[in-house]
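P.,

For your records, the input lines for the assembly:
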Amino acid sequence: MVSVCFYLHVHQPYRLNRFSVFDIGSNKDYFDREKNKMYLDRIVNKSYLPTNRILLDLINRTNGKFKVSFSITGVLLEQLAEYPEVLQSFKDIINTGCAELIGETYYHSLVCIYSEKEFKRQIKMQEKKLEEIFGTKPKIFRNTEFVFQNEIAKLVEDMGYKGILAEGADKILGWRSPCFLYKAKNSNMNLLLKHYKLSDDIAFRFSLREWSEWPLTADKFASWINNHNGSGQVVNLFMDYETFGEHQWKETGVFEFLKHFPKEVLKRGDAFLLPRESIEKFKPVAELDFPFPVSWADTERDLSAWLGNKMQQTAIKEIYSLENDILATKDMKLIESWRKLQIADHFYYMCTKWFADGDVHKYFNPYESPYEAFITFMNIVNDVKIKLETLKR
Amino acid sequence: MKILMLGWEFPPHNVGGLGRVCYELTKSLAKHDMNITLILPVNIKSPEFMKIIPTNIEIKEIQSPLNPYMNQMTYQKLFKYFKLYGSNLYNEVERYTNRCKNIIKDINFDLIHAHDWMTFKAAVHAKQFSGKPLVLHVHTTEFERSCGLGQNKYAYEIEKHGFEHADLIITVSNFERENIAKNYGVDRNKIRVVHNATNPVKNKDKIKKNNKIVLYLGRITLQKGPDYFIRAAKKVLSVHPDVTFVMAGDGELLPDMINLACELGIGDKVLFTGFLSENDVYKIYQIADLYVMPSVSEPFGLTALESLVNETPILISKTSGVSEVLNHYLKVDFWDIDEMANKIISVLKYKPLGECLAENGCKEVNNLSWDAQTKKVIDIYKELYQS
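Structure tokens returned:
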């Protein structure tokens, strides 16, 4: 019997207002409420509501044999306060006991690279938010964009986490299979590794007509999972939630696929498992060394989508160089703005490699070009600096 | 295949992008074994001109002061010095057309390829005389030169007449394809797009300087939007008084622009260079921190590519064709002076912005080649030749 761990990451950023150099020092809002609402309205209707209906229905119909786990970023949960119906639909799923919430950084940030203290603060904030809304405390952690390296295991272990979701990258695994539980180097932290091939079959290739396996049927997909019997214990299907209805539109048949593949999996005698159950059930087979940061993005599986060019590096360094001064002001509004400016998406929009890398990055990009993204961001950072100077005086 | 090409004077005597495009295209076509008879209006004979022409090009010169950017006013100014030619621009175009007719009688060709309106009358005649297919290459139209205001009826009619008789039309961008479809009622199926390209630059000397320099380079005419550049300069200087703005090029609006800069109180911050030689053009690209092309309507915008091969980032208007072959540029509505100033200041203020734009842009432009574009032109020839 193969176990399937089905995990969805749910996130939407705060997009920035157009902010010209002439707006610096003007008290203009940094965040574009209208645009954020516009995007969210669309995603709620195209993805969150229909997908949650299907997920809840699957749990009920299979008598709890279907299981699903989520990470929902703090910044999205804030925004969903305006969409009580969506929050309720997540609560309904969590309340079945067949779902698990995963911990992460509240601001979907890459803070782990820049500040240990702030990293921990943002994880705590996320725990508090999950407690507030869902009344649960996460046991398993996933870092923003699956960014993981050895040092992170220790930090997160100290905070009481038992396992981390990470990318099953070839450069780390080598000949080994992602279908087992592993352990982080020099730590007791369990590692659950994404089966990127099967995950991407749904997330990226589902509607790709040039793909030799198109169309992907529930039956075929379940048989691929079943093929791991004898060579693996658990298949970790980790992907963005928006795969369902947004990255893959309803017209591609992705909802029909979602409705049917769990039944096909169960029919073959395989089972669904939550991450917290996975670390109970299995023993780590080996220690894995992540000597450098690995992410789940692009073919490179590194940080180049966020920190690949000089603009991105400059922008992110600027924002983290303000940490001590900003926190010292104790001005909650400014601190909150500073944190929202850490959302990884801002740096993703500045990526220039996507002219060669396909259109994944273009998705949801509110800017006409990465250069516009950089200009807007830097103008806002300069406005933050002016506010900071004023508060200091 | 034998091509009758009605072209324009080559560098270094060209006054704009068209001469350069004709030169590169003809040179590259000759490499692809096309036999070309080239008819050129020649004003001053250049010794290096003959040297660079490969052997399968035959040149037929017509002594004429015509250049593709003339209008009645600029022709009249020149006319003072060239008494032997037509008394006004239209007479001169007629005289040029008649001279072409004489040449065409005595030569063989399979296809006619003509560039911009002044050659169109002769080109249509060549088609009617020989029964051979006609390709018109559109680099700009009267509609754009006049910015849609009070265009010269004579030129417009010649263009319209030419488009009607052409078997196929080549435009330098999709943007221009739409423009001529809309403004001249041309069937889109008759129009093919071949973008321009540029050659890599070997010598790049980064010249040391103290000031930030923002560059305008092009003919100083209504179509190119020079006044938006000056107004944006005023806006930038109100925040960053140390920036120098250079307006390079000549044109009928030059005196107006000098006056405008003085009126706005920035006369000492805007330098006017007049017409620059090819060598100086490359130097000035290299010394600039940013090249701005604020054109009201720019069918292509070769200068944008020239700036990028010299590793100078570009800020171009949205109404330009060159953006169709590029990803790494800043763009703005030509009338949006605030946003133009915002982007100019951002490039000057945030160093990595200009660096990323220049590096990526230069790489991207170096991937374009005249050779690839010439193959597209040859495919268009074949399309007609075979049918």
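Two observations worth noting. Chain B touches chain A through 22 residues (CB under 8 Å). The CA atoms of residues 250 and 291 of chain B lie 17 Å apart.

Regards
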